[in-house]
Amino acid sequence: MQQKKLWWKCIKIHRTDGEKMYGQPCVVALGRHAGLPLQMKGQKMKELTKLVRRLGRPIATKRRNVWLICGVLLMAFLASGCYEQRLKFNGLETSMGNLPRLSYARTRSISPENFTGEKGKGGMATEGTGARASRELGQGWKVSPSVRIKPGQTFLMADIEGAGAIQHIWMTPTGNNRFNILRIYWDGEKEPSVECPAGDFFACGMGQYVRVISLAVCVNPKSGFNCYWAMPFRKRCKITMTNIDEKPMTLYYQIDYTLTAVPEDAAYFHAQFRRTNPLPDKTDYVILDGVKGRGHYVGTYMTWGSNSPGWWGEGEIKFFMDGDKKFPTICGTGTEDYFCGSYGFDNPKGGGYQEFNTPYAGMPQVIKSETQPRFGLYRWHITDPIRFEKDLKVTMQALGWQSGGRYLPLKDDLSSVAFWYQAEPHRAFPKLPDRNSLKIK
Predict the structure, then answer these.
(1) Is residue 95, in this structure, part of any structural domain at all?
(2) pTM for the complete prediction?
(3) CA distance to 58, 60, 134, 196, 223, per residue, from 300 (Å)
């Protein structure tokens, strides 16, 4: 239909503008009348003009000649447009390889020094948590570096309008990080796509600082939480922090984002927290369930409290996708295998468990205890996402050893955060556990 419309307009150009049209005027007129973007300039325009002239004769009244010229020009314009589109860079998916590339993306950042992220509005506060320290210096001297959130209060960290993507989040919340609840909403949705205790979201979920060094998440001294998950949005992004503790909390934070065009095939980021304590006998722990639609699973963080003495990591992870019922499509071979370790995470030189950090997997935290040792583990599927077309369920077994070389189903204390991307809308998450159920005792 579009091609027919273009040919008709070409004929109309000829009938309106005279008997003959040569070279560049023909190209310009065609583009103007046909409503096409004139993206060919300079050398491209010269080459197209030469092509028109090489046709050997002017655009005459004979329809076959008009159709021939229009066909050639149509293909040239479409090819040029596709080529130009490929050359455009939207500022997303940055890496060492494409850092030199320029784009029309606009970088913005939200913090207590610029609550809206507006251009030229940073550092203007005259009141804030730093007002006393800056009383002799005045405006522009770290007057509002943080916010205080009262018990039961939900604080709006960011409310961004337009299309773009979150590229980095840094924060350092005080208090019990199981009681600081992070939520993120995309494009005006009522149900959050991210709902998670802040510590667990940043792979530091047991109430104690631990250094995490990975591509997706970094936790730096003393309690600097950083995440680098790409989080695109098309209309709006809203981020909140809720303090469910009985004490006030102080939150320093910075949300770095870009305003730019978002590809049509870009899915939305999701993260969901779950906890079961104790795990029912001979039952698989559910990391994620109820996901409907198309997407890919990109990561798991788990805190594992062992309620039984001895080894706890023989269980298998299972990915049920696209109609799988009793048996999954993907089945692991052991808990330490899934988290990219082996043979009980033992230190080869002795001494028991060996903590480790890598770009894609790690066990950065081991809390030794005679009653309940605890372990923090992460696995990012950055280079190997688990893709699904219709639905997804993820489970993990808790399995140890007993006499006679037999497996022993365990009743451990398990928590997890599942990370995935999917097309919206998404199903509502299960209700987040209450404060008492979140607490690590």
Answers:
(1) no
(2) 0.81
(3) 67, 68, 43, 13, 21
In total, how many domains does the chain have? 3
* Segment 225-270, tens digit of pLDDT: 999 999 999 999 999 999 999 999 999 999 999 999 999 999 999 9
Which residue range(s) make up the domain with 74? 2-87
Residue 320 sits at φ, ψ, to 5 deg, of -95, 120
Q: In the numeric block, which tokens belong to residue 39?
A: 């993206």
**Cross-strand pairs, 273:** 417
The Cα 356–Cα 158 span in angstroms is 34
Give the pairing of strands 180-186 and 194-197.
Answer: antiparallel
N-term to C-term CA, the chain: 68
Answer yes or no: are the C-beta atoms of 315 and 398 closer than 8 Å.
yes
Q: How far is CA 281 from CA 326, 407, 430, in A?
A: 18, 13, 22
For 96-148, how does the pLDDT look when each residue is reduced to its tens digit (9 = 90+)? Answer: 999 999 999 999 999 999 999 999 999 999 999 999 999 999 999 999 999 99
Domain harbouring 376, CATH code: 2.60.120.1390
Is 246 found in the same domain as 190? yes
Residue with structure tokens 């023989």?
Answer: 314
The predicted-structure confidence for 1-18, as pLDDT tens digits, reads as follows 444 444 444 434 444 444
